[in-house]
Amino acid sequence: MNPRTDAGTRIEATLDAALAHAGGEGAPPLLAAAMRYAVFPGGARIRPRLALGVAAACGNDSPALAEAAAAAIELLHCASLVHDDLPCFDDAATRRGKLAVHCAYGEPLAVLAGDGLIVLAFETLARAGLAKPRRLAPLVSTIAASTGMPTGIVAGQAWESEPQIDLSRYHRAKTGALFSAATRAGALAAGGDPDAWRPLGEYLGEAYQVADDLHDIASSADEIGKPTGQDAAHGRASAAALLGVEGAIDRLEELVADAIASIPPCAGASELKAVIRAASARFVPKSLARVAA
Amino acid sequence: MNPRTDAGTRIEATLDAALAHAGGEGAPPLLAAAMRYAVFPGGARIRPRLALGVAAACGNDSPALAEAAAAAIELLHCASLVHDDLPCFDDAATRRGKLAVHCAYGEPLAVLAGDGLIVLAFETLARAGLAKPRRLAPLVSTIAASTGMPTGIVAGQAWESEPQIDLSRYHRAKTGALFSAATRAGALAAGGDPDAWRPLGEYLGEAYQVADDLHDIASSADEIGKPTGQDAAHGRASAAALLGVEGAIDRLEELVADAIASIPPCAGASELKAVIRAASARFVPKSLARVAA
Prior knowledge:
Oligomer: homodimer
Largest interface: A-B, 63 and 63 residues
Largest sheet of chain A: 2 strands, antiparallel
CATH class of chain A: Mainly Alpha
Strand content of chain A: under 5%
Radius of gyration of chain A: 18 Å
């Protein structure tokens, strides 16, 4: 796709092509529908926007590979939401303002939709990687490490099953890992240095975690499309509980400032800063934005 | 690892190294244990043996990549067993003669163990693919296609949730896909032509399906380490029900003969034929082998 096309359009088109492949000749129709339902309509697509933003800042010499990396990260994020909502975890009935996948399609298809989306993420990467073979292994490794064990989102979710939860590891794995993968994968897809982009992903991941805690206590379920008050209900630690609401907002703003300051010198830095400011403006719940202002 | 080392030893060592990575620094201990429990001790390791056998027949110029491909296929097979045994699918209490993962570790960790094993499969491939970058994209694509949608094992399992089951697609996806991936991935890992090895995988996949049907009706649960009589209990179609026990054994022998006849001319053909004869000798349940003899 033309790299001058709007990032949102490129992300939706790449996700749509991936889901079209998954629902192609021979597919069981209900699972194809459940996978599509889990991905569309999307949330803010923050992680894939971040990946494309970093790829652009690194020169964007392979837009199709950057789009595939961005889509892979979003597919993995969607897979984790589908499995997190299952009765054996959060037992959430709603997500993004509609029924959770297990409520709309039943538990078996929700388990399989998550599995299918994980596999589709790596398949999407591999198809685009044919044209840039030397970039594929580090891309798959980076994205897999942010998703699996020992420190990816699957590991993060598993800390909830431990008798002693390591909170810092829990948050870094459950939320931070995929943000950090988004910036590093964006760099890798464009032939850039992934390590230079790690701090940006880590600061934003932590900022997003603080924002999520704020949403959980301060938003209504209508506003964010999923149940709120879950941290208190499940006895989970939360920045808002620890720092108070205003303290948490201060911390969030500090982290976004650190994120922007961490951007390495590059041609596309100013556009990227705009992408990050736009994304992080959505972090604070509407009701609290008024309090903070 | 030295390619002259016994295939079984190479497979176990590669799986062990993958699980050691997954359980490394920062891992939540229970999930690390659940993943290892799902993989060891293994079953017959038929699929990875087949992959290594084909790689050897193709000249085995990159043993580490062949081992990674074989291990990836086995990790994906183990992941599918863990998820298939969940209460929302077969609700099986035992597997390979011990408690199923969801019974030993609980349902949340069983879901996550399956997810973690899927991701680990692709990560294992990517690490070995660094040394042979041009082979990685087709390997990931081939293995992902045999696992996900529209025609891999996830798709196969999803046919059980459709109001109208397409039986031929169901069996091809649920059992055949990973056998076909094993032969093609073995060839790809060694720089061979994957298409030449497709019939071998397909014949063996169908043979294995017939054998599984025979086991389901003729074995005791003690003999195969998981509940039997599941096809009848779940109303699933079965070659044994369709052809009768002796007809099914005839069909099985015919398929193994077709498989062996399909092997392309190559230096390692006679060793590979021995691998296949050894594997397929285990296909017929002990009690029926006496009847057939």
